[in-house]
């Protein structure tokens, strides 16, 4: 079969077919999606034969031998950059017939991260929530999900043109970086790191919380805690890591997508032979949201 691997750049190559374990279904992949993090922070020395990739959607061609999970022919959202993937059934969710598998492939890690990070902020109805890197894959989902939870969403972007479409997704305010905030916020979903994470922390309400999700800036974070004490800050920063299995969260997200309550925010789509082009566009900030690759 064919798969996307790093050799040394992102390219298609022939690799052995996967062999499913007892609790795994074999999926014929119809579309995959790229995330900034898996490209920007990939290992400089990938393991021989390793198939990277977090997001995909396709059709079950062989159900799990232990009887768990969906039957053959079921459309599902899952993981991996290859024509065939063996996936634990706890990491699958069924996709209705009327929902585009390409759009669904944009959900797993980005929307799953946004969903879990919003939950970890606790009750946010009526509260001011800042989302940095709001124009990216996780950010655009986080804006939608925080707004659905009743928050006053402040979307932080790198430039005015990156704010396109965010008010329609639920952003009540747009700022060019957290340093421009005049009022404090209860919670922050930070996808950028570096100086923006430091600036966001200093703008927390007392007992506010930052979920440190990503590091799109590729910069270390330096926080002046003396300044924080002067400002009477008692806020905290939590290092976010996504929890698995994701099956139940994926089912919830697919349900929102199917009813039009969640927009997949696909900013680039093309055949997977153009994977390197899509990856470069993501790294250069020329994609708002997700990049989707259709698998023939």
From TrEMBL:
Pfam families recorded: ADH_N, ADH_zinc_N_2
Transmembrane parts of this sequence: none
Occurrences of domain Enoyl reductase (ER) (ranges): 9-293
Nucleotide-binding keyword on record: no
Keyword NADP attributed: yes
Key words, A-Z: NADP, Oxidoreductase
GO molecular function: NADPH binding; oxidoreductase activity, acting on NAD(P)H
Annotated protein name in UniProt: Zinc-binding dehydrogenase
């Amino acid at each position: 079969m064919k798969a996307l691997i790093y050799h040394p750049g992102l390219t298609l190559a022939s690799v052995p077919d996967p062999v499913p374990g007892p609790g795994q279904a074999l999926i014929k992949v119809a579309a995959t999606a790229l995330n900034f993090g898996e490209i920007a922070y990939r290992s400089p020395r990938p393991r021989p034969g390793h198939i990277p990739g977090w997001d995909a959607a396709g059709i079950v061609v062989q159900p799990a031998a232990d009887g768990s999970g969906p039957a053959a022919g079921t459309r599902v959202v899952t993981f991996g950059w290859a024509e065939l993937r063996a996936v634990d059934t706890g990491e699958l969710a069924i996709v209705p017939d009327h929902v585009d598998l390409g759009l669904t492939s944009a959900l797993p890690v980005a929307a799953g991260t946004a969903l879990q990070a919003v939950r970890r902020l606790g009750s946010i109805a009526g509260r001011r929530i800042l989302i940095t890197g709001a124009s990216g894959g996780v950010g655009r989902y986080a804006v939608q999900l925080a707004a659905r939870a009743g928050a006053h969403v402040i979307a932080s972007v790198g430039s005015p043109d990156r704010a396109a479409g965010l008010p329609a997704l639920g952003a009540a305010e747009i700022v060019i970086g957290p340093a421009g905030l005049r009022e404090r916020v209860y919670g922050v979903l930070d996808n950028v790191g570096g100086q923006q994470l430091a600036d966001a922390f200093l703008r927390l309400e007392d007992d506010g919380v930052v979920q440190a999700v990503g590091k799109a800036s590729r910069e270390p974070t330096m926080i002046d805690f003396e300044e924080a004490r002067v400002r009477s800050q008692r806020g905290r920063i939590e290092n976010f890591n996504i929890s698995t299995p994701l099956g139940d969260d994926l089912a919830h997200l697919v349900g929102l997508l199917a009813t039009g309550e969640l927009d997949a925010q696909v900013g680039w789509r093309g055949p997977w032979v153009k994977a390197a082009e899509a990856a470069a566009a993501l790294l250069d900030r020329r994609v708002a949201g997700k990049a989707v690759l259709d698998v023939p």
